[in-house]
Amino acid sequence: MILSGEKDTKHLDIIILMAGEGNRMRPYTSNCPKALLRINEKGSIFKNTVEIFNKQGWNINIIPIIGHKWDKVEEEIEGMQGNMNFFPTYNPFYSSAGPFVSLWLGILKSEANHAVILNGDTLLSKLLVEEVIHWLEAGEGFGLCITKTDKLSKDDMKILLDENNALQKVSKDIKRKDAIGKSAGVFCIKGRKNIKMLKDTVDRLIKKQHTLDRKYHWHNLVNEIQSQVMIELIDVELESWVEVDTPEEYKKILKSINNEYKDD
Questions:
Q1: Domain ranges of the chain
Q2: How many CA atoms lie within 13 A of 250 on its CB side?
Q3: DSSP single-letter state for residue 23
């Protein structure tokens, strides 16, 4: 995916996990994946993500992992402009296996020395993406975007720190009273050796039957990486992202965005 003779320092693969059926979001997702839900007159969650990353001065490869209503995603991509390359990758197991399979397929497709893995149903702000780019430009390693907050639900990927205030675990199962915040669902990897560690870890995990389970979330990869090397925590504001999980959340987001436009 990287043209021969080009330097790789500014090439970035964005792996967007968006193959799922989004059953909790029906009827909105009956005819499209959650990532294609419209947020304003300019377009969808997916388009918002693509356009913000496209303005950051990097050579971007977009790798959407598709499944449910995959043809709708390809139609959306055909209508986009920019200096990015799109590499939609179909997950034939989207209705039976969990999100880790989508992650595995994305890693197989990725060729750059830097990557960002994110949930396709998360609406990202320009501020959050700029924090990601700033982190990528600062050095090498692994980084997980988190928000420090006590506003936590049972479905949040909660963050537990150890006695040195380093990441110990990320999981829905962490008790709210023990958590310092939640993951924004954006995992960053910079540097050839770190990409290799990522790929080796994913390759090892995908051979285990339990990683195919629908309840096995890709954040388990973060925990596996954390057992090998320290993962930096990238602090992002609570208002800089929102995950669209239910029709109620979607309606709330639409109302909030519409109010912003009225104020302009």
A1: 11-263
A2: 20
A3: G
Q: Is 190 helix (H, G, I), strand (E, B) or coil?
A: strand
pLDDT, tens digit, for every residue of 17-29? Answer: 999 988 888 888 8
Considering Cα of 212, then 247, then 35, then 32, what sign does the dihedral take? positive
Q: Could you report the per-residue pLDDT of 158-210, keeping only the tens digit for each?
A: 999 999 999 999 999 999 999 999 999 999 999 999 999 999 999 999 999 99
The answer to whether 242 and 123 have CB atoms below 8 angstroms apart is yes
CA distance 258 to 264: 10
Task: Give 198's contacts (C-beta < 8 A, 6+ positions apart).
Answer: 107, 115, 142, 189, 221, 225
The total of other beta-carbon atoms located within 10 Å of residue 236's CB is 23
Residue with tokens 């910079």: 190
The conformation of residue 246, written as its DSSP 8-state character, comes to S
Helix (H) or strand (E) holding 249: helix 247-263
Quote the tokens at residue 154.
């049972």
Give dist(CA 21, CA 210) in Å, integer: 20
Q: Could you please state the CATH topology (level 3) that the domain comprising 11-263 is classified under.
A: Spore Coat Polysaccharide Biosynthesis Protein SpsA; Chain A (3.90.550)
Give the contacts of 122 (CB within 8 A, at least 6 positions apart): 45, 184, 185, 186, 241, 242, 243, 244
